[in-house]
Amino acid sequence: MIGLVALVAAACAREEEGRQQPITAIRFPSGVALSPEDPSIPQQLLVVSSNFDLRFRAGVLHAFDRATLDRLADDAPPSPACPAANPRCLPADVPDIAEALVGAVEIGDFGGQVAVAALGDGALRAFVPVRGNHTVVAAELGASSLQCTQGGGTDCVGTGAEFPRDDPYSVVTALGNLYVGHFTVLRSGPKGGVIGTAPVDAGFWTTGGGILQAIQVANRSAIGGLAVGGCRDEDGAPTCTLFASGRSRFDGTQPIFAFDFREGEPMVSPLFSRNLFAQERGFDSRGIASSSSGSDVFLASRMPDALAIIDVSRLAQLPTDGCVLPEGDVVAPGAACPDLPPSTGDRPAFTTADLIPSPAGPNTLATLPRTMPDGSISDLIVMTTTEGLAFFDTRVGVLAATLGGLGGAPTDIAFRPLGDGFRIYAPAFSRGSIAVVDLPDPFRPESATLRARLGPAQESGL
Amino acid sequence: MRSRLVAVAVALSVTACGEQTLSAFGNLDTPISLAIHETTSDLFIASHGSNDLRVYNVKKADFLVAPARLFPLSIPTVRSPIAVAAAEHFVFVVSGATAEVGFVTLDVPPGAFGPRSVDGPDGFPITQAIDAVPTAAVAFAAAFGFAEAEGGALADHLILAGLSPDGDGGKLVVVRPPHLAPGESGVEPLPSIVTELELPGVFPAGLAIDPTGLVVEGEEEPIPPAIDCRTVAIADSRIAEGHRPGVILTKARVSPDGAFSFDGPGETVEIRVPVMLPSGALEDRLAGARAVAFAPAPVTPALVEAVAADPCATRSGRLFVVLDPAYCVGALSCPNVAVLDLADEAPFGVLATDSTTGGPAAFQLPGAQLGLVAVTGPFTITGAFNPGVVDENGRALQAEGIPELTLFTSSDGALTYLAGGFGTFLEAPGVRADPDPVFLLSSRSMGPSSDVNVSRTDSRQRGVENVQPAVTVPAGARPRSEFWTAGFEIPLPGLEDVGSNGALAARSLRLPADASITFLEPVPVQASTDPLLADRAIPATFGDLVCDGFPIVSVSPDGRSIEVNLAAPGFVNPEGCSAGQLHVGIFPPKGMPWTLAGSVTGFVGRIPNETSRDFDVFAGSDLLFRFTTPDDPLPRGATFAWSTSSGFDFFRVDPGFFGLMPASVVSFGSASSTRVFVAYSGANSLLRLNPVRTSRDELGILQ
């Protein structure tokens, strides 16, 4: 579907080449993120316009004031097509979101996802992988501005750091580290899947000339998505695990990767990996998200269309479970061999625990943590699909609700708590707007409603 | 759309190769749930992508057609259907988009097209909203009706399991299809919720209902029981502190006036199964359940009599359970299916016995288990063997006359065969049958090898060609399928070259900073003050120079350095053994010169230098094989290899590329007329399988 839209859009491409994209309009959005709650910088919603049809001179990273966007969504007049008895029968379309704009910078063509990191000095920095020139662009968030990290201003094209492969797209930040994945290995240039990494406060973000350090992960697969999970305190230091889904277009290859990292140490464990093909038969994994407990990850699988739940709890690694005993000596039933060597560490189990059919075109995922009456956490998974959002209840592993009408092909998800539930922001690639979805009761996923669609519909929108 | 095109393309290419048959055209789009209507032989296929049902008639082997006969019949129904269940007059369809149930009527007026959705005046399906997140559903027609229907009483019910919106538990909801109350007319028939059963703390993931046990084919109409009372099994997947997961058994009662009730929240049958820890030790854990199916109960006049005498007696004797792997944390392997024998008094269910091992009937099948179906035999399956029955030649016997089969669908797309048996079914009034064997079918005819062919793999065989150890598999041993290496004075795995001989002159040797191994891993070096029991640092020499080496007396705590004894009594190290440029390897002790390592089990240890002595090799408490040292001495470096076989491979049906996301499985018929259908939502395909004809070219693929 995205490809079809792109073709249609490309038919009118280039007519405005050289012009700047209107910064209050979103076009072919590919990524979205909420900045952290910060006392000095009101929370912002960052949206990447990818310039997918190459209509303008560059794609744009927009920063919107989140509270203003929420007000626009909440106060929007109901659709005139709805009866008075049911005024919210259709989502409110809010074409003018100019008053919410905090700032915008140009980033280049074919931007990917976006992530925000808080620096040590309290500053907030956004990172966007840009496929058009395989770079990662950085921009500084201010209370009332968005500026390129390198050189200030709003023209960030060609700034930032180089990524060592084509098509950088996915991005996450945690513990002061940035990680970027690329979603194809089929183009020319260096082969093999890598994850690029750099400190979020590296000097080259301001001076330029940086190159992301490459962590080689695979020969035949790129990265479908990145996620951080399993954060814990280890040896007195906060430690997290980076998970990556291996995106492959080859039958027989369905890898998943993981490694541990700490602040200032982008990789402190071996690279753990497993080809899940033998367990799932599929390939072409896309987004990945960690469970709240860190014991599972969720994969948006494209072939087949499904949500896969992968057990990543840690297993002790013993070099053997065997022993040699003189004839007549036995190991007691159910016991271990005597004098086994000690564990040499641990590794993720990487076992497929469940596979749940999904609507067509799963792409990205987010984990919505719900607090159960006993205080424990149960995750609700929200997935973008070709037609909208799909919600999966992990209490039993079931598709619990779907929601369409967002504007076609949502590409990413950001969310925040709202009351007892959540507000979800999903950029709609086809329509070029932000869908605002309210989930007032996360234990009733069918309560999800499309509150509003923010931004003018792009000309080729559906 | 893309997956559809790929599937069709591959289907055509496969057909061209003559491997599989593409049958009638159903234009399936993400088929996600299946239901069989026995009376009409219709298979209802809920398609998530097209928001409709398609219907395949099993006996005619064709899809029902639409009024425009070039197309298959499409029954538009609720949005994003995720479950479909058939009773007698109605098919129930559960929406995955919204918590509601739609209805399809099977009572089609003559000349009309159908079955068709029950729609309201606005043209949209009439639905019944459910205050829960639906997770599983079963439909049945009770012995007593609650309303009038075409040609008789309407007794259709849907039992729907769901997660409660309070977040802490689940419930069962019983739904009746659209109907008029007795005496009511002139108003629109509407569905209703009859009753609900709260299940506090329970996450109901699967449901099953006991066979009716009321009708014997070919017999006269049986005497109806005083009440229609049937056991309902609820799979509880929740793993939480203080919670007892397992299978909950309760009773669903329909009285002669049509009133429906449950016997309370029921009894929890715990499923305590052994899991294997990384050390090979076993640990018993409580498992949660993901899906359940009752074994068929042989329907005989005696069973009907028994039900008449005790209407609430459980007819089935066995419950097959797909376990939820959430209980497996930290385990190297853990069962994902289990078999319970049922009883009418506590304990209501106990683990059946695996006739192959004598242990509990709990198995780890390949992949994540998603669904199951139990079918009635007898079956004789070509190429399938009973691994527990081995003849005098060590060969497993062909699986013949299997009374019941349970097929499990896996996330890898294949179906695994279990000879599940009938278990303790209700045989006669007050009498339950003795349990019959449970075993996994194997695709291997050869059992665990009793004699293993050992071959010499090094090149120093002159004069000792016939000197070699023996490997045997005693009765009761459980070898793994793996390759083994035994060496007489060969380096420990990974420690073939740990540095230069020059460093040993100072009695210690430290690994280079960039070394990927240590003296603690992958094999911990054995240090001792007894020179005969200590691993040795031995320089690699050439020609006739042989060094006994230097016993290791200590290993540093970080594992990166060792200290050796340069003057161990009785150790011969000629002058050349001290040459500084030689590389050093770590060898087993002089008194224990044999080492054994398996490709799966790993390095299992050192063996004393005794001739003609038996040693048993274990993994955990499982005896793998017996190793007998040779009668005569061997030169350093003598190396031997062999392989062992577990004698078992899962008997499975694998549809290959079409095996993408087995979302649902059902069966129709019994014995030789049995047909099993699997909906592969990822391939927009339906597999039609005769379970005894399992070769790839006999699988039917319907799209």
Describe the structure.
The complex is a heterodimer of chains A (462) and B (703). With 462 residues, chain A is mostly beta strands. In chain A, 6% of the residues lie in helices and 46% in strands. Chain A has helices spanning 2-10, 66-75, 204-207, 277-280, and strands spanning 29-34, 44-49, 59-65, 92-94, 101-108, 115-118, 124-130, 135-141, 146-148, 161-162, 168-174, 177-182, 193-199, 210-211, 213-218, 222-234, 237-247, 255-262, 272-275, 283-290, 296-303, 305-311, 314-316, 322-326, 346-348, 351-357, 365-371, 377-384, 388-393, 398-404, 414-418, 421-428, 433-439, 449-454. The model of chain A is unreliable at 1-14 (pLDDT under 50). In chain B, a hairpin with a 6-residue loop joins strand 53 and strand 54 (675-680). The longest helix of chain B has 15 residues, at 2-16. At the A-B interface, helix 4, strand 22, strand 23, strand 24 and strand 26 of A face strand 12, strand 48, strand 49 and strand 50 of B.
Task: Set down the secondary structure blueprint.
The complex is a heterodimer of chains A (462) and B (703).
Chain A lengths: L1 H9 L18 E6 L9 E6 L9 E7 H10 L16 E3 L6 E8 L6 E4 L5 E7 L4 E7 L4 E3 L12 E2 L5 E7 L2 E6 L10 E7 L4 H4 L2 E2 L1 E6 L3 E13 L2 E11 L7 E8 L9 E4 L1 H4 L2 E8 L5 E8 L1 E7 L2 E3 L5 E5 L19 E3 L2 E7 L7 E7 L5 E8 L3 E6 L4 E7 L9 E5 L2 E8 L4 E7 L9 E6 L8
Chain B lengths: L1 H15 L4 E2 L8 E7 L4 E6 L4 E6 L4 E2 L11 E2 L4 E6 L3 E6 L4 E6 L10 E2 L9 E3 L3 E9 L5 E3 L2 E3 L1 E8 L5 E11 L10 E11 L3 E6 L18 E9 L9 E9 L5 E3 L4 E3 L2 E5 L5 E5 L1 E7 L6 H9 L8 E7 L12 E6 L6 E3 L10 E2 L5 E11 L5 E6 L5 E3 L3 E9 L4 E5 L6 E3 L2 E2 L6 E2 L14 E2 L13 E3 L9 E7 L10 E2 L7 E3 L25 E4 L10 E6 L5 E4 L18 E5 L6 E5 L3 E6 L6 E6 L2 E7 L9 E7 L7 E2 L8 E7 L6 E6 L4 E5 L10 E3 L1
Parallel strand pairs in B: 1-56
Antiparallel strand pairs in B: 2-3, 3-4, 4-5, 4-6, 7-8, 8-9, 9-10, 9-11, 12-15, 13-14, 15-16, 16-17, 18-19, 19-20, 20-21, 20-22, 23-24, 25-26, 26-27, 27-28, 27-29, 30-33, 31-32, 33-34, 34-37, 34-52, 35-36, 38-51, 39-50, 40-47, 40-51, 41-46, 42-45, 43-44, 43-46, 44-45, 47-48, 49-50, 53-54, 54-55, ...
